[in-house]
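Service request form, structural biology core

Requester: graduate student, group of Dr. S.
Request type: structure prediction, single chain
Budget code: on file
Notes: please return the result as structure tokens.

Sequence provided:
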Amino acid sequence: MKKLALILATLLIFTTACGQLQQQHYEGAGIGTVIGGIAGALLDHKNPWRGGVIGAGLGAVFGATIADISTRGSHEAYQTGRTVEYHTENGEGYYRAEPISDYYYKDPYTKCRKVSEKVWGNGQIVRDTVKEVCESTKYEKGY
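Core staff response, request fulfilled:
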């Protein structure tokens, strides 16, 4: 149990030290924690608490990773105006982001574009969403 706590603490330190986390990372990690914890508890018949903790830790890492791929892919599709695709080495997981609109302005300082995201797992579509990705410029008055 001490080893598991040390591993989780190390992952937490590396996760926060390796970059700026956004809201999507926290949401992905939260969903992954819940799903992984439940799955781990159900799969470890001898000690469901141990399985739940291990599953929650792994689920948090996987959930944050999937959220990061989604964020990077949609922003890359927004900036380049081209389709972006990522896939796992074994071909079971597949991500595709495709811009579906031209740039438009929500206000004079915010430029947006809609991006379609699709995620496949084991040949079946897991998620099909449309995201609005925006960039804005902040102007401040100087003295």
